[in-house]
Write a structure and sequence with these properties.
Length: about 90
């Protein structure tokens, strides 16, 4: 791990890499939400539940994206994941 840095000390390339990590996390979160938080549309159609393998793939992508954010922050800014996160990923607390 390198010494802690301020975000404004990042190069343009480093900022873009951190931005991509955060964008991947947002996309993964939105994809999982779309599969799990389906609101019925009155008078139109009833959504079929997503197959288990699709949900598992979306969960895996969310976990990997979260790990990617923490890895980028650790490498670029010297930040560590907070206590209670699994391998810098999502919280394992209840």
């Amino acid at each position: 791990m390198q010494a802690r840095r301020k975000p404004e000390e990042l190069s343009e390339e480093e900022r873009q890499g951190l931005h991509r990590a955060h964008q991947r996390l947002r996309n993964a979160s939105q994809a999982l939400e779309a599969l799990t938080v389906v609101e019925p549309v009155r008078g139109r159609w009833v959504a079929n539940p997503a197959p288990l393998e699709v949900l598992e793939a979306a969960q895996a992508e969310l976990h990997e994206a979260c790990q990617g954010v923490w890895q980028a922050q650790r490498e670029l800014l010297g930040w560590e994941a907070p206590d209670g996160t699994a391998a810098g990923g999502v919280s394992t607390g209840s």
